[in-house]
Design brief:
Helix content: 40-55%
Order of helices and strands: HHH
Strand content: under 5%
Shape: flat
Largest sheet: none
């Protein structure tokens, strides 16, 4: 045979087939290692409980309702037990009068040219060149 006419084996195909065989063996071993899916008869079910009477159900329901009502009306997790200690120290009229005084003072300062037209007076664009 001539070396020019002989075909070289495709290495990618050989590599993929070898990896496929390894993957099948790994998955197959894990599948067969699992059990048959049958449970032990003694552990398959919860132990039987006695049936409750309607009167027992009513009493249980009323106690659950009372507990839920107390929990809903009591302090919530995010609220805590914090009571506000600070109260209003001035009346609304006093606050309005103080605001009016500040407003009149700023208007007078603006009329006299004491207030800048905005911006920072220390900014480079406000400096003289």
């Amino acid at each position: 045979m001539n070396t020019l006419t002989m075909r070289r084996p495709n290495t990618a195909r050989l590599l993929l087939s070898a990896l496929g065989l390894v993957a099948v063996q790994a998955i197959g071993g894990a599948a067969f290692a699992q059990g048959g899916g049958e449970a032990d008869a003694s552990q398959a079910k919860a132990p039987p409980t006695a049936r409750t009477t309607p009167k027992e159900r009513v009493t249980a329901r009323t106690t659950r309702n009372a507990e839920g009502r107390a929990a809903a009306r009591g302090p919530q997790l995010t609220e805590g037990e914090v009571k506000p200690t600070a109260g209003a120290t001035t009346t609304r009229a006093e606050r309005r009068a103080a605001a009016l005084d500040r407003y009149e003072a700023s208007c007078a300062a603006n009329r006299q040219g004491q207030l800048s037209r905005g911006g920072n007076s220390d900014a480079p664009e406000c400096q003289r060149r």
